[in-house]
Amino acid sequence: MKKLLLTTALVLGLAAPLAAGPAFAVTVPEPTPSATATSTDAPLPTESASAPADPMPEVTTSPTATTGPTVEPTSPVAEPTPTPTEEPTPPPVVVQDDIQAKWTALKGAAGALGAPTANQLCSLGVCSQAFDGGSIFWTATTGAHLVLRTAGHTGPHWHTKGGQALYGYPVTDETAVSGGTIQKFSSGRFLTWSTKGILQIWSRGGIGSLWRAKGEVAGLGLPTTAEICGLAARGCSQFFAKGSIFWSPKTIAQVVEGTIYNRWKTSGAQAGVMGYPTGARICAQAGGGCMQRFQGGTIYWSAASRAWISRGSIGARYASAGATRSSLGYPLANERCTGGQCIQPFQRGFIGWAPKTGSRVYGMTECQNLNNGKSKYPTYGANRVLLTWTQGYGLNHATNLYCMKVAGTYVPDWRTDGYVGKSGFKPPGVPSGPTRNLFSPTGSFSVTEAFGLGNPGTKLPYRTLNPRSRWGGNPWTATYNKYHESSSWVGWDENMWWFASLGYYRQGVVINYNRPTIVQDAGFAIFLHMKKIPTAGCISLDDWAVVDYIRKSTPGDRIIMGTYGALFR
Which of 297, 326, 355 marks a domain boundary? Predict the structure, then answer.
């Protein structure tokens, strides 16, 4: 029975999948025993029979027939239904430690970070964990900080522009500051956002290091440009809200700001004559001003003078004099050069330069009135002008200021006292009248020629006097107010030889009063001469001053003379 059940089960198990007809048994002749159906009463065959003992009848009731013993009809055994295999449930993502505290403080899964997408990973002292909306990084030194993926400004840039490979991990959160936001990363880079967009500061470079030393955002503010290199002399720069930093291989990084920066920019900045800054701006100067040195000079600033450049020989002379603490004060303009000469104005004077004389300091004098329009009389472009004035009418003791033009600006050469007509000056437009009245005329007069006992060296026409030298003083004669020669001394004519022998006319200059158009009896023989005493209308100076005047004068030079109030506004 045991064998029969086993055989039956085997047959049914094999036949069931093939059966297409009704589920019942078919009686067939018993086959010759085979390896699959054996009897305990017969010996096991040594080989299988080659054919059954009786032919197997054809069965038409089923597409498939099986051989075997006749058995009781049974129900077919159904194939067992396999039990489905279930996927293993992954372990839950865990948020823990300081990263958990940071995440929780940001409202957990309901916050900007969302749910965690991976467990915490740690390597070389840095732990990180990814979330739907970004990542949190932690170190024992910096604590836990996040970079958002879609929210904020710096985080999205970090994720799309290099991430940790370029910027490192965050050591601060994105923080709101004046004008924008900022976030620092372990690489030393700061990412900032403002209306200028996302900009980077490389804090380990020269520019970024100085930005940090100046107080970061509290000092110079957020950047307004990226760091730009490839400037003149292989320099770099970066602009910030409150100043700019410039660096070159030959100069360390320096801040340039305010009106000093504006003046430097007008000179060509780093590509101009000034080059790169070599020092920081130094304030607390005299008068509350500031200064900053550059490769090519120094820029000085004060509220009263504004910012100006001092450089070259003039700048060196200014510095040696004490710069802003000198009697000159602050510069009032950049140096100006023309005709091979240069000059720079200061609050209380000038510094000029010429190839033959080098640099020279000039005080602020009445010569400045010739530059600023405060002179009532024109210079007509004269290279040199002698200003001669008294403090009022009826006075004959005079101040004499010899002004020379340096690079188009009148500055003092020398100052000395002297005398004019004993009766003083006539008012403007009033002739001096006859010499016997002892008045000097007021006005601006050219000098036409020099005279004396020997040419001291002048570019003016020079007349050497002789015993016949005369200057006409008799009105309504052909020689009135003219040089002529005569063996006699007639009337009001001046014997120039005789006056030379007395020291007056050993050297002199003709002042072009009442000439070339001559008005009879309006005055004559108005000279600049030696022997300093009150005169009949001339200007008298010390001998050295007359000689120096003659040596330096050129055609077109002028003398402007009168009372102080008549000459200046």
Answer: 326
pLDDT band at 91 (very low <50, low <70, confident <90, very high): confident
Residue 277 lies in a domain: yes
How many residues can be counted in the chain? 569
Please give the angle made by the CA atoms of 553, 370 and 523, to the nearest 5 degrees. 60
* Structural domain range at position 107: 97-326
Which pTM value belongs to this model?
Answer: 0.76
Where do we find the tokens 């029975």? Answer: 1
**pLDDT digit string, tens, across residues 39-82:** 333 333 333 333 334 444 443 433 333 333 344 444 555 565 65
Q: Are residues 320 and 416 in the same domain?
A: no
Give dist(CA 55, CA 70) in Å, integer.
Answer: 17
Chain segment 408-419, per-residue pLDDT in tens = 999 999 999 999
Which contacts qualify for 12-19: CB closer than 8 Å, 24 or more apart?
12/74, 12/76, 12/77, 13/77, 14/66, 15/64, 15/66, 15/76, 16/76, 16/77, 16/78, 16/79, 17/79, 18/63, 18/64, 19/62, 19/64, 19/76
CA nearest 463: which of 448, 475, 478, 452?
A: 452
Residue 486 belongs to domain with CATH number: 2.40.440.10
* Pair 261, 151 in one domain: yes
